[in-house]
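Tokens for Zinc finger GRF-type domain-containing protein. Go.
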Amino acid sequence: MDSSGRPTGSALAQRLCGLPMPLIECNDCTRKVLRLTLSTPKHPGWVFFKCENDGDDGCSFWFWEGQYIDLLIERNLIDVSALLNTIECNDAAACVTRGEATSTSFEPKMKKEECKIKNPQINNECMEKILVQLVGAIMKVGNLLKCILMVFVFFGLAILAKIW
């Protein structure tokens, strides 16, 4: 917990708390992770995520909501921009119901489609496309380095020929 008594997590994760998050597999035993809410007087309503196998076999997967969101962000398992759009749309809707202005003339109006949460799951097809793009980029960098090396060799030979 941080100094204010809230569960830990980055500032971004704290903004995303309360939104639906995907449940992943545990790092240790590959069982599903559970989303639970505390009902203790000290921390009523606090959300945490733990492995189904917590406690029995010493499985150590246990995170406060903010920490869990940071883990999902780190592993690229959620679309942060879509979730932030959802928050902004919800804030805009609340402002409209209170009669407040929600945007300036410089900001484009948001469409309802932009407020929907995209599917945060990454499938094998997506991973394959990403890997193909990554390999292509690495090949281009390798070719560029070969060209640079050839330029250095050419100029080096030219300098050696001039000296002799």
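The chain has two domains: 11-96, 126-163.
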